[in-house]
Structures are given as C-alpha cells and as structure tokens.
Design brief:
With 188 residues, the chain is of the alpha+beta class. The protein has 2 domains: 3-88; 91-186. It contains 4 helices and 8 strands, in the order H-H-H-H-E-E-E-E-E-E-E-E. A 5-stranded mixed β-sheet has the order 1-2-3-4-8, with no helix packed on it. Strand 2 (102-110) and strand 3 form a beta hairpin. Helix 1 packs antiparallel against helix 3. The chain crosses the membrane at residues 40-57, 64-87. Keywords: Membrane, Transmembrane, Transmembrane helix.
C-alpha cells in the first residue's frame, strides 16, 4: 500500500473517530457545540477519505469493494444528517443578559411533526474560546398552560423561569462554574 493511501486511511479513521465522539459526547464548550458538532458531515468526510485511500490498493476487487462500501456509508451519513436537520433544527430567539459574564440563550424548535413549539433555555458563561454553555430548561407548549412565558435573573447565581399559567421554576447556578444545579422541563 503506498504511503499516500496510509495517510488517507489514518485521516479517515481520525475523522470517523471524531464523528463518533461528537455524536455520543455533548460538550459544554461553545466552540465545540456550535462549530464542530457535525457528526454526519464528519462521517461523510471519513467515507470519502476511505474511498480515496482505496484507490491505491493493489487488488482491484478489494479496491471496488472498499469504494462501494465507502459510497454506501457516505450516503447513509448524508441521509441521517438530513433527517437530523429536519427534526432537530432550533431557531435562536434571543438572549437575556445576566450578571457579567452570564447570559441566558433562548432557542425555539418545532416538536416533531406537530404544530407544537419547544423553547430551549441554556445559560452561557462568556470567556472567549473557553465560553461554556449548559442546558437550563425545556418547555413544550402542547398544553397551553405549560408554554414558556419569561425568564429573569433573581440574583447573581439564580434564575426564575415562568410558564403561561404563572408557575415558576427557580434554578440555582453553581457560583464557581455557573453550571445549573438543577434544570426545569415540561413535556420535553
């Protein structure tokens, strides 16, 4: 096997390993969560690199088998990415500023195929490349009383989330890290 094929094989294994890591491990670093959290695209890249590595194989039958399998793998990854994008895309609604360096991020997405909307809340601690974000709550409006209404800071390390019927969900944050000690969820 030529050195070029070995390098491409190693790159393919690295891309596939990184795709699996991103798919199964949810990082709280904003850089990883927003910019590198594309496991299906990384899977397609791994398959394409594997097909390119197979071009240098000596046996024609093995070359064809690896290229066909890599093409099937890339097709499955593209289809899986398309399905995931259709059912899990969230639209950013805004931010609620808190005590420096914290703020709450609000995102909304559709709940499956129905008309229900889901509001996702997360708390972010800004720190440049080391900014972190943690889940704070999730509220599904399939029952109108459970729909998200508002969120406000009640102290330097505490948040209060209110739903449509007036119920409140107090959430305390760890004063050292900013990570929520509990989360709130209705019908999620």
């Amino acid at each position: 096997m030529p050195p070029r094929s070995l390098v491409l094989l190693a790159a393919s294994l690295c891309a596939g390993g990184f795709a699996a890591l991103v798919y199964f491990y949810d990082s709280d670093l904003v850089v990883l969560r927003e910019h590198l959290n594309h496991p299906f695209a990384l899977g397609v890249l791994a398959c394409l690199l594997m097909a390119l590595a197979a071009v240098g194989l000596r046996w024609m039958w093995l070359r064809v088998v690896v290229i066909v399998l890599a093409g099937l793998g890339a097709s499955v990854a593209l289809f899986g990415g398309w399905v995931a994008l259709m059912f899990s895309s969230a639209e950013e609604v805004g931010f609620v500023d808190g005590p420096d360096p914290y703020r709450i991020r609000l995102q909304q997405s559709m709940a499956g195929l129905g008309p229900d909307a889901v509001m996702w809340l997360s708390v972010r601690r800004d720190g440049g490349l080391l900014s972190r974000e943690w889940d704070l709550g999730c509220f599904n409006d399939d029952d109108s009383d459970d729909a998200f209404d508002s969120v406000k800071w009640t102290g330097p390390s505490s948040v209060e989330i209110r739903v449509a019927d007036g119920r409140t969900f107090p959430v305390a944050l760890d004063p050292a890290s900013g990570r929520p000690q509990t989360t709130a969820a209705l019908n999620c």
